[in-house]
Amino acid sequence: MFGSIIAINKNSALVEITVDKKMMGDLLNMHVVFVDDDKKILGEVEDISDGKAKINFLGELTETNFIGGLLKKPTLDASVRIINEQELAILVGGDNESFTLGVSPLYKDFPIKVNINDLFSNHTAIFGNSGAGKTYGICRIIQNVYNTPSLPYRANMFIFDSFGEYINAFKDLDKINPNLHYKLITTNKRLVGEEKLQVPVSLLTIDDLLNLLDATKYSQISIVESTLELAKIFASDSKEVNDYKNHLLAKAITSIMYTNQTSAKIRDQIFDIVSNTHTKELSLDTEVPGIGFTRVFRHCFDIDSEGRFAERTIISEYIEKFIQEDRTWNIDTSNVTYGLKDLEVALNFTLFSERYLLNADMYDEAISLKVKLHNLINSSNAEFFTDRKFNNLKEFLAFLLTTKDGKKAQIVNINLEDVDDRFARTITKIFSRIFLTFGKTNEPRASIPIHIILEEAHRYVKDGDDVDLMGYNIFERIAKEGRKHGVILDLITQRPTDLNGNVISQADNFVIFKITHPQDLEYITKMIPNMSADIIEKQKSLQPGTCVAFGRILKIPMIVKMEKASPPPSSSNANIFDNWMINKQN
Questions:
Q1: Could you give all domains of the chain from N- to C-terminal order, each with its CATH number?
Q2: What is the pLDDT of residues 421-479, one digit of tens each?
Q3: pLDDT in tens, 527-551
Q4: Distance between alpha carbon 185 and the CA centroid of its chain, in Å?
Q5: SS in 3 state form for 420-442?
Q6: Are 525 and 499 a contacting pair, CB within 8 Å?
Q7: What b/e readout covers 341-367, taking b as 16+ CB neighbours within 10 angstroms?
Q8: Which of 39, 354, 512, 580 is the most exposed place for a label (fewest CB within 10 A)?
């Protein structure tokens, strides 16, 4: 098949081909072995022209291993032959900790096996055009893992499913093995009987709320911080909490009463405060005692003919008795839970503190947060938040991983198909932050690994204001720190150009289906380590369901044909013929 070596260059050799010209095309991308007396060198046929093959050097083969790179080239006397099955097994044979990724179409469907640790303990990116087989590919990979002799009972895979495509692929997971279970958490109200997405408000951090309320200004950070603190304080109905509310309200009212504004404007501002935030003792309808009579709170601010409040002295004395500057407030916030409406109350109290009330710029920015929170509470998305109490992140994670009948779920599908991109991105970031925080605090480290599988990853993993406002992007942080804590990203997208470049640069494994858009090709060439022009050319001619896989999972890049997912995901095109056509005779 191969004759003598004509020339040896820096990284390749030119070799005569002795087979019939009709068979020469079959040699492209095949792996060959240069055999010298003391070594075997692996190469790959890159180009065929005029009866000669250009073969790139890949590395050295030993009896049991492959070593990438070369210290010494083959001699001109070396023999050249196609790689045999024993040598191929060194490259893709796997061991008892491996599973089948697919088969090699170049070598009579020789099984390609990869080590589970090499794939699932590293971040992975799966790229490809629409219809190239990305969703089928990730489903097939997961199905193959769950079909291995060992039982992955302690796996924790969270799929963020943009369009409900994964439901069909995993809903019968327990039929593979009765100890394996699948759980669906959904925003789709049409899926009757399925568990609705529920985000516990009391587990949200400052960063979560900044994302949820689409904050853009640094000053809003302190507003949200104060809001969270007050929400925790106000979560109980104790007398001390009520005293503290009265203290805050009284201070806000007093600070306005002694400003150099007109009486009418002062009254309007005080009424605005007490309308939005009030207690039994301080409300518009509270009866204020005077000497021998009582006045309703709102009537104390009637303006007389001289432009002053008719009962200024009475109302001032009444309000001032609630201010307790010297009191030490010992309110226990360790066992609290609250919802969105409690946050709104806390934000209103925050707005009426002197710090914000008398600062026009900060007040405007606080009002912006108030409007967004109010709109959220009155939107259909409000139902996805709960005041349910979870003592810690581990308890919440256990809740997520438990099915309705109390079984441990290995795959949790968080279906976000009925919400807009901005809200879906915020929810994904909140969950990702929770997973990373849990991973960093759990002991022993990385003992409960969590996989975050992002379908349509370009919806979530993108550049934004997070770094400017909060100093970090959660997906960048997971990409850089997650592996050592057992939090792993798997990114699936048809638009790699829209992904955050810092996240892609941290991926160690790549499964690339056919990509044709020039901008995408240019992007992945620049962003992916070891992405050669040869790999780019290989993927251009791939059939659906066939990919180029490389990274830690394989010693060399390989063309892999994947078996169809069974059952398949719901990602195929609509059947136009069947949906259009009717029988003319009817």
A1: 2-83 (2.40.10), 110-198+388-573 (3.40.50.300), 206-377 (no CATH)
A2: 999 999 999 999 999 999 999 999 999 999 999 999 999 998 876 888 888 999 999 99
A3: 776 666 667 777 777 788 899 899 9
A4: 15
A5: CHHHHHHHHHHHHHHHHHHHHHC
A6: no
A7: ebbbbbbbbbbbbebbbeeeebbebbe
A8: 580
Structure tokens at 551: 């990274």
Tokens of 165: 């495509």
Q: Are 123 and 489 in contact (CB under 8 A)?
A: yes
Pairing of strands 411-415, 182-186: parallel
CA distances (Å), 43 to each of 79, 137, 173, 511, 538, in order?
Answer: 12, 28, 42, 22, 16
Cα dihedral value 122, 128, 133, 137, nearest 10: 0
Please give the backbone phi and psi of residue 213, each rounded to the nearest 5 degrees, phi first. -95, 10
Closest listed residue to residue 69, CA positions, set 78, 60, 81, 61: 60
Nearest in space to 41 (alpha carbons), one of 75, 85, 1:
75
The residues with which 487 forms a beta bridge, in sequence order, are 450
Amino acid present at 451: H
Cα distances (Å, whole numbers) of residue 157 to 145, 152, 558, 570: 12, 11, 26, 19
Gyration radius from the chain CA atoms:
33
Global pTM exceeds 0.85: yes
Token representation of residue 286: 């509270």
Dihedrals φ, ψ of 444, to 5°? -65, 155
- The answer to whether the CB of 454 falls within 8 A of the CB of 488 is no
